[in-house]
Every structure is written in structure tokens, then in C-alpha cells.
């Protein structure tokens, strides 16, 4: 710097110090991406064992005490041991994948060898499945560490409540619901119990808790991910998918999860459609030149939600997107709930019986057995089981439903679902859209003490919001739906926006969602689950 003025020298020194400080800036566990964590692993400033210990400390601090989220029902007793082994493996032969050493949580309706899988029901208390679900196995083989099983809506339908474990609390406001049915995974990810989680989605069960807890979630294209080892609700709609704090983390996991499973014929097309690395589609300028359809039909239910969505659409426009107002046909909005139940209810009885048949002899073997057991008590039991009248009433509806040979079911499968697919695909093609956006949940998360809807009976009462939220449209069509945090209500409750695209458009949706996320950075750590001492690590 010979000949430079003193001011220039001082400025250069300040900039150098600032650069060094930025380079040395620690990562916070609660905001770090999987890429940040892997960089720290490689640098030797963090180990998988340490990471798992930090995650377990957060579970201990917030799940049973403090806000008492009740998101975790069982911790893997071998998680730390597994982390140590993976650290040694990394040192000896390198990382297996971008998920090597990363802990993940699993919704309690995905089979996990060695840990009970109960579906949130006392009727399956202690049931140990014979092996891992295909997706759990894929994550373990990639070097990820199963940290814990998460609480869920009982048998994945009804209120966000379990007869085995009770309510799941929302980390943003514990007197509100974490939503269902993957509410435990949603709350756990929001509270930074783990960077990654698995949920399942039939009519909206990944997307609703992603919205309620303010995290990223994906219902993939039907057939992109295996359904093997999932307690079924209705296999025409059932899908598993990842949930995470960041779009990039979800993209990392999707590359591991997607692909053909010989045990699930629906994944046949995934062989040609699945990507091994979805992170290559992440583009902070992904909205430039895009065409986004806005489904305004789902606004008008909550002014705070509407304001966030309008602000989000304006942010996309500023980022280079063209916004097109679109409308779904009125007949589709009116008939979609009946169409959903016409397929879902008849499928449950034979499909749950097939799943139960692979379990131990002392477990129920049919819907009739489940109904009989549900009638054994109407008050909290000595073991701590809690009555769940709404879900058990639905069991009786499922028991009485016409079978899969009924004309209504056959017509819905053969004609109703293809018609919905064609309509949604047609709207996307006609307007030349990359995606349709809408509020994932047009209403803020409900209070745990809210009274049930009045004037409704049976299945409609148990899923009243299925007529409000658009999530079941993607379920009926079999199309992917990506949820991204968008903002907050005036009371600090999260609002998310959904990106719905055509079949196997996950790469484009991830590009759009990543660009929106990077432009808005709307996700926030819940105030009731703040950072703990010692959680930061050097890059």
C-alpha cells in the first residue's frame, strides 16, 4: 500500500478486519443450513456427535418443559453412538453423502426398526415394525442419523391430537395447534430439534403443519417417493415428504429420498424423473422471467394472512415474476371434498388391514378390531391413554364405508381424479405458468381449546378446513406442492405460501421457492424456543 493516504490505509485496515471477522463469524445451530454444518464437519470445528448432543439438549429444554411442545415421543437411544461411528467413518473414508452425520426426525406413522411405530394411537402402543420404511432406510444409508420419532394426529386424520401422546403445541404460541397430521415433525423442525424431518401427506398433512409452524415442506409428485412402510390412510393419496428450515436443506434430502422402490409400483416413473441432486436447481434469481398464477379464491378468510400473501406476490413481481390471476372452476371447489372422501374412505379398511397383518399377533388386525378397542374406555386410562372421540368416530365412518368395488369409488378413481389432473394441468398450460401460488392455510393456526365446528357431522366435521384450504387439490391431482415461509400475523404467527406445479416439476418449484426465500427471508425462530448457550460453531 506504498504511497496510499493515511485515510486509505485506515479504511483498508478496517475492511480487512471486517473481512476476517465475517470469515470467522460463527454459525448458529438454529439458523445453519445443512451445507453450513457439512462445512464445519469438514473443517473439524463440529462433529456429528456434538451436533446430535446439541439437538438432544434442545429437545430436553423445550419438549417436556418450557413451552412443552410435546413434539417428540421417543428419542433413538443409539443416536449418539451412531454419530460417533459416522464421525470415525468420515475420518477414515469420507462422507457418504451431503446428509452424512445429519440428524433427522420421523413422523410416527413411518416404520422404524427397533423403535415403536404407533400412528399416534394407543391401539398400537409398543408396536415394533419388522423393518424400516423405505425412506427411513434411504436416509440411514446416506449417513443420516435417526434422532427421534415425532408425535402426530392419531392415524393421520382428525384433530392434531393423539390418544397416546395428546396435543402437539405450536412453538410460536404454545396455546395454538401445531396442526396435523405431521404436527410433531413441523414443531420439531421449527424449534430446531433437527435440521430435517419426514412427514406424510394425504390431504395436506405435510403442508398444514409446515404452515402452522413456519417451515419448508414438500408434498412430492405422486410416485416420486416410496410409500413402503407407511401406516396407510388412503394409498391413492398418501405420500411422504421432507420438512426442513431451508429450501436448500429440503433439496439436499429430496435427492436421497426420490427414486424407484420395487416394493411400490407407483414409483415406476421415478426412475426416469427423479434427480440425484436437486440442489443444482437452486437459483437466487429463479423468479426472473417466471409466470406465477395467483389463486385469489383462497384469500378473504383472514386479513393478516391475506396481507402477507399480497406482500409475497409483490416481492415476486419485484424479483422478476409476471403474476397472473387464475381461477379454479367452481365445480372443482365444490366437489373436491366429496371426491377426496369417495376415494379415501373406501381404501382405508383393506389397506390398514394389510399393514396390520405384518405386525405382532397381539396388535389389531382390522378396522373392526380398532373400533372394538376404541370403545374400551371413555376416560383417561391408568396407562395415560386419552380419549380421542373425534378420531374414533371417524373410525366408525371408515368401518361403514362402501368398499373399493363400489360404483362411487370406481368412478372417482377412473374419472374424477384424472379430470382434476387435467383441469389443473390445463390451467398451468393455458396461462403458461411455472406454478400456482396460494396461502397454504388461509387461516392462522387454531387454538388448542377451540370448540369443534358446529352443525357438521362425521368425516366433514373432522376435516372441516379441507374445504377452506386448497391443499387437497394437489392431492387429488397428484401434483407437487412446495411450502415456503412468507411472513407473520400481527401476533407473531407464521404464514406460508404454496407453489403448486405440474407432475415432476420439483426442480422448477425448488428454484422458485429458493429465490422467494432468499429474497424475503421470512422464517424466524419461535420466541418460545430461543438459542441455548454453546450452540454456535465456527465455519
Write up this protein:
There is one protein chain. This protein has one domain: Amidase signature (AS) domain (Amidase signature (AS) enzymes, Alpha-Beta Complex). It is globular. The N terminus is likely disordered. The protein is built from 17 helices and 15 strands. The chain has 539 residues and is of the alpha/beta class.
Shape: globular
Cα Rg = 23 Å
Fraction of residues in helices? Answer: 25-40%
CATH topology: the name is Amidase signature (AS) enzymes
Q: What structural category arises from helix and sheet content? A: alpha/beta
The fraction of residues in strands falls at: 5-15%
| Number of DSSP helical runs | 17
Count of individual domains: 1
Strand tally, please?
A: 15
How do the strands line up in the largest sheet?
1-3-2-8-10-9-14-15-13-11-12
CATH class: Alpha Beta
From the N-terminal CA to the C-terminal CA, the straight-line distance is 30 Å
SSE diagram, text form:
Blueprint: H1 6-24, H2 34-43, H3 48-62, E1 72-75, H4 79-93, E2 103-107, H5 134-141, E3 145-150, E4 161-162, E5 166-167, E6 169-170, E7 173-177, H6 183-190, E8 196-201, H7 207-213, E9 216-219, E10 239-244, H8 247-257, H9 270-273, E11 291-295, H10 303-318, E12 322-326, H11 330-356, H12 367-374, H13 389-400, H14 407-430, E13 435-439, H15 458-462, H16 471-477, E14 481-488, E15 494-500, H17 506-520
Parallel strand pairs: 2-3, 2-8, 11-12, 11-13
Antiparallel strand pairs: 1-3, 4-5, 6-7, 8-10, 9-10, 9-14, 13-15, 14-15
Helix pairs in contact: 3-4, 6-7, 11-14, 12-13
